[in-house]
Design a protein that fits this description.
about 20% strand, seven-stranded mixed beta sheet, 6 helices, alpha/beta
Length: about 200
Amino acid sequence: MTEQERPATGPLLIFGLRNPTARYANTRHNAGAMAVQHLAKRHDIEFQQRSNGTVVGRGDLWGRDVRLILPGTYMNVSGDVVGPLVRRFGRRLDSILIVIDEMDLPLGIVRLRPYGSAGGHNGMKSIISALGTQEFPRLRIGVGRPENGGIDPIQHVLARFRPDEQKRLDEGLDRAADCMELLIQSGINEAMNEFNGLGSIED
């Protein structure tokens, strides 16, 4: 029996990537953390801050020990938090989920994958380097590309969402939380089948 075929017995670690501090709150690059916070709010999970600035919330969801983690490091060195925690809890790569923003998806659209490359995302590059593999699940939340092609993509992801984007953002956060809930209840395959076909540029 392979590792993937064995039932998961340890906690499910869900990491919502972000840049910490109030300066970056509600920016596009923090969409992953916003989605994890949205899930926590649904289930009345309270976050406790650790000494390194990382905050962790713990809940029992559908009989599974779930840890919701917002790294205290800046996005580009997310692996400094993810790597040690994954090793601490047994390095079951099918028992982690990285939740990140994605410019190549329209605002509010989500995509769940069991593995894949960093796709140019520096937070993912850091995690892949820390774990020595890209064979771990990730949930991408669309934040869209700049409407004006002259805008620097870095400035775009570090900008806050506009008021006219709030409705689609809220829909995306709901969809991401729904997807995480189904993953916890029924596994990644059912969650991918349910959510990866939802939404399009024309929606």
